[in-house]
Each structure stands twice: as C-alpha cells, then as structure tokens.
Design brief:
alpha/beta, 7-stranded mixed beta sheet, Aspartate Aminotransferase, domain 1, 3-stranded antiparallel beta sheet, 15 helices
Length: 388
C-alpha cells in the first residue's frame, strides 16, 4: 500500500500545482483540436492561439524570442535534439565534441553514441567542487570542434557553472554551445539576450508543471537538423502533434512561480545543510556552498551506505535519492562523485535532498531528526563504521 511521503526528491520531479491542472483541463475536453487545424475551423484557431500564448510566456521568462523556443517531450529529447541536430548540421566541418565528465545522462549517453559512430569527444575534468577546468576547455577547442555541451548546473551536487564565460569562449572560437538548464530553469536568472548560448535545454517537470513536456532554445540562424521528421510543427524543427494541454500547463507553471521562491528555497536548503553538518558526525557537503542550486543539498554520510539510508527513510515516510534520478537502478558509483575526487565509499554514501515550495522547515526538522537516528544505528552494524 502506498504511504504518503514527505518528498525531498524534487530534482527528479515536482508535484503538479493544482493551478496548472486547472489551466490544462479545458484543452482536454473543450478545445481538443490540434493546432495545425487553425486554417480549418475555430477550435483549431483557439488551440493554435493557446500554443502561441504559452510560447510567448516561456520565451519571455528566458529573454528569448518566441520563434527560438520549440516544445519537446522533455529535457531528454531536448538535449538529444540539440546535440544530434547540431552535429548533423556541421559534420562536414568537423567531428570533435567537447563535454564535461559530470553531465547528466541525456547529454553523456547521446555524446557517447556519437562517439561510437565516429565522432571524437574530449571530456573536460572538474575540480573537487564540480567546476569545469576552464584552461583545459580552452586548450581543447580545435579547428574541427563543432560543439561544446556543458551543463548549467549539476543534477546531483548542484554546482552552477559559469556559462557566461563558457559561452563567451565558444563565441570567440566560433564553436556552438549547448547547455542543459533542466535544474536552473526558473531557479536562477537566465537572460538569453545577454548569454552566448546557442542551445538550451529546459523542462516543466522540475517547476511543478506536467511531466512529458519540455523546451529547447535554438538561437536564430543556428545550424540545426531536426531529429523527428513528419509534419511542419514547431517551425519545421520538430514534427509531431503538439501536446497542447501540457504546453498550456508548462506556461502556467512558469507564470505562477513567486519572484522570491528561489530565496525561500535557499534559506531552507542552508538550514538543512547546517543542521546535518553540525549535528551528525562524519558528514560532508558535496559541491560548492555558494554557487549551487537553491533547491539542492548533497551530503555524504561517511561509513554508511546511502542506499540503506534511503530505504530506512522510506519506511519513515521520507523520499530522497542517492544521486540523480537515473541512478535508481544502477549499482555503479556516481560518475559525478567520482569525477570530483570522491572514493567509491563516499559516492555510495551520498544523499541528494532537493526542495520545493511544498516543503517546510518543520519537515526538514523531522527529516534531520530521523536521519540522525538512522545513521547512528547503521554505523553500529556497518563494516565501514567498525573500521574507524
């Protein structure tokens, strides 16, 4: 039987806001035409207008132009489309791609596939806080480099990269730049009118919007070949019937985010970090303390398995994760933790806590009190704990 949980895994997905569902509802039952029927009948016009309004809202939130935003099925498709679309368009120029060692799987696995198909890839190192080595990045750009893909912020440890500096470097060297902003979208300021970014991935599911809908920013006149063929939807850049209810819900989710929400999340994040590090011995924060996502806290509990912590917390009604959501079925140590210099033991002992508007300080207090008891008990029986 499902148990109601106190949810601290909001980097994996967020709870849908009721106001979003209310906005979506008419497009399931009243205005259910496809947007490409705008030239045939009135319902099609209303559907098309809804898509246009939503695109305008989302473009404005990023200081982008509406025709630079295409809707996708989510951040995974967006990153696939950007990377494969850019490399396909420029393969005659070169076959060298640059990325970092801590990218999320939609980027890493897309690039690894291209690597198997004949592209050459340089994987940039990061320091112990997760920042990319800018000197290595600069020296790695070659005449045949066609794309740099560096995330805006890390999905596990929350470190925010300096995409302004990365973008400027790419523009100077005439190389396309893609960034995965899945976790920074609407959480930190993004002004695409002042950033040298050619492609940006973002999604609704991290900001209390519906799952299965995302967006891709493609700067005007950027070389690109579409991934999905068919009709002429999305400015002929992504074929397929638009998911109008989800698009409308995506825009509503963006509209209703309070201007001070990130500050509120940051205060709760810092409170959580301070309590854990001060009250539970042998713990350490992963990532940078200041340049990190406002909703993210990633902590290693030394001498104990993170999986054991998550399972015990689940029994007490708390949902957390041992890394990015993609690690749930993997026994491998986190590639992010290993890249920042952690040991296998540290990687397996790390827990990611990610917050949302539905979390409270009282919930954090309950979480820390519970996890303190769990860690203490697990260390008593842990072989790692006995070695201390």
């Amino acid at each position: 039987m499902f148990q109601t949980q106190i949810y601290f895994d909001n980097s994996a997905s967020t709870r849908l806001d009721e106001r979003v569902l209310e906005e979506m509802n008419p497009y399931f039952f009243d205005i259910y035409s496809v947007a490409t029927s705008e030239f045939a009948y009135s319902m099609g016009i209303e559907a098309k207008e809804a898509v246009d309004r939503s695109r305008d809202i989302i473009a404005k939130s990023l200081a982008a132009k509406p025709d630079e935003i295409i809707f996708t099925s989510g951040s995974c498709e967006s990153s696939n489309a950007a990377i494969k679309g850019a490399t396909a368009a420029l393969s005659s120029k070169g076959k060298h791609i640059i990325t970092s060692k801590i990218e999320d799987f939609p980027v890493l696995n897309t690039i690894k596939r291209l690597e198997r198909e004949g592209f050459e890839v340089t994987y940039i190192d990061v320091d112990d806080r997760g920042f990319v080595d800018m000197a290595q990045l600069e020296s790695s750009i070659r005449e045949d480099t066609i794309l740099v893909s560096i995330q805006h912020a890390n999905q596990e440890i929350g470190t925010i990269q300096d995409i302004d500096a990365i973008g400027n470097l790419c523009r100077e060297r005439k190389v396309l730049f893609h960034t995965d902003a899945t976790h920074t979208f609407m959480r930190v300021p993004i002004d695409l009118s002042n950033l040298n970014v050619d492609f940006m991935t973002f999604s609704a599911h991290t900001v209390h919007g519906p799952k299965g809908i995302g967006g891709l920013f493609i700067r005007k006149d950027t070389p690109f070949k579409k991934l999905i063929d068919g009709g002429f939807q999305e400015f002929n850049m992504r074929a397929g019937v638009e998911d109008i209810p989800s698009i409308v819900g995506f825009a509503k989710a963006v509209q209703i985010i309070p201007s001070d929400e990130s500050k509120t999340l940051q205060k709760m994040r810092d409170y959580l970090i301070d309590r854990v590090l001060s009250e539970i011995p042998d713990t350490s924060l992963n990532g940078d303390i200041s340049k990190r996502l406002p909703q993210n806290a990633n902590i290693t509990f030394h001498y104990v398995e993170g999986e054991s912590i998550t399972l015990h917390l689940d029994m007490y009604g708390f949902a957390v994760s041992t890394g990015s959501a993609c690690f749930s079925k993997s026994l491998e140590a986190s590639h992010v933790m290993m890249a920042i210099g952690g040991s296998h033991e540290d990687a397996h002992g790390s827990i990611r806590f990610s917050l949302s508007r539905y979390n409270t300080v009282e919930q954090i207090d309950n979480l820390v009190d519970t996890i303190s008891k769990i860690v203490q008990n697990l260390r008593k029986i842990s072989p790692l704990g006995k070695e201390r």
